[in-house]
Write a structure and sequence with these properties.
Helix content is 83%, strand content 0%. The protein contains five helices and no strands.
Length: 150
Amino acid sequence: MAGFFWSFSVVVMDGLRLLPPLEAMRAMQAINAAVRNALFGLGFFGTPILCLLVLLALVLPAGRGVGGLVAASGAALYIALAFVVTFARNIPLNEALATATSAEQWNAFLAPWVLWNHVRTVGSLAAACLLALGYGLDQRGSPAGATTWS
């Protein structure tokens, strides 16, 4: 998901800015309609489910150590800054854009949507790094090849 959000932050939205406002608005409306598909849904809804499983596996059991806490922090960060922000900020903006018809509505949409997408991007990238770091720290304290996350 970090790559998906990142591509919007560094390519898609800048590309839309190059279009006349009404064309950009229609293109974003089409993107928002196209993203509602099963394959995207699997990645979008599967990631926070996996993060919740990480939290349950690493926070609740005692003695998980620093690696477990780092990974659990990454999971919590993803849920807060990618998943929750999407529902609290980006989706309401998308829904308002779905019925928009003017350049003024597009201009009102663009800056806040991009800002919150940057939050999702940074949050999901940081979460991925923390999850990987936590796993690596956990493995350092284990016998070669053994995993302590099972």
